[in-house]
Design brief:
Blueprint: H1 3-25, H2 33-37, H3 40-60, H4 63-86, H5 92-106, H6 108-111, H7 120-137, H8 153-166, H9 174-194, H10 197-217, H11 222-246, H12 256-273
Helix pairs in contact: 1-4, 3-4, 8-10, 9-10, 11-12
Length: about 280
Amino acid sequence: MSETQIHATEDAEQMDRLLAIMSALRDPQTGCPWDVEQTFKTIAPYTIEEAYEVADAIDRGDMDDLKGELGDLLFQSVFHAQMAQEAGAFTFADVARTMSDKMVARHPHVFGDESNAKTPDQQSADWEAIKAEERASRDEARTLDGVAIGLPALLRALKLQKRAARVGFDWPDVGHVIDKIAEEAAEVVEARDTLSHDAVTDEMGDLLFVMANLARHLNVDPEDALRRANAKFQRRFEGVEDALAARGKTPADSDLAEMDALWDAVKRAEKSSTR
């Protein structure tokens, strides 16, 4: 037996084991009470959380952690499939078959007669064309059909904008986007002073939407940019806490002026260390 066959056999054995464990956990008589009472809606937040934890492990370059987080994410798929099987909707095998069929259909240059001598951009264009055909077969004829509502808002904004841009609904250059940001920022200020909280929320949403559009025009992933900003803020604030601790103080014992000065010092130290 070849090494590939050995790995395939082990993969199948472990997948069968995981499916059996999930079935046992959901057994109404002998299973885990918590697992038994779960539904698609109650499990969905955990599924989203696990996907983000996979991304976090990748960002940290922690392969041991990535192995565990991928297992957690796989378990979420198994959990949903088990509940679907109990409802008579579909099985895990149906899920795997559907994905296999989709990947084969979307890669005719690998599994069909088309040439694979294409650039990544050409392959991306072909991928989008195939997806458009799939949406049309599901009667999703409108440009923005099929962009999942449950996506994180920033990611969904980016996907909506990309779809609209494909049919020509887009600013011609970054300058127009920056002008729109200034306009939307002014509207936020005006709403804050004169309008209701709902109106302020709407204007703030418009500003964030345009910020996502600026990221797209700059070829920047806004989710990644914001994650990096979050990490930077945490790192620098913890530097402020460390500096206060050296003075025998905590943030509660300090004031904004002191913490702001320490923040600037931490920021300068970071920048000088990267030069």
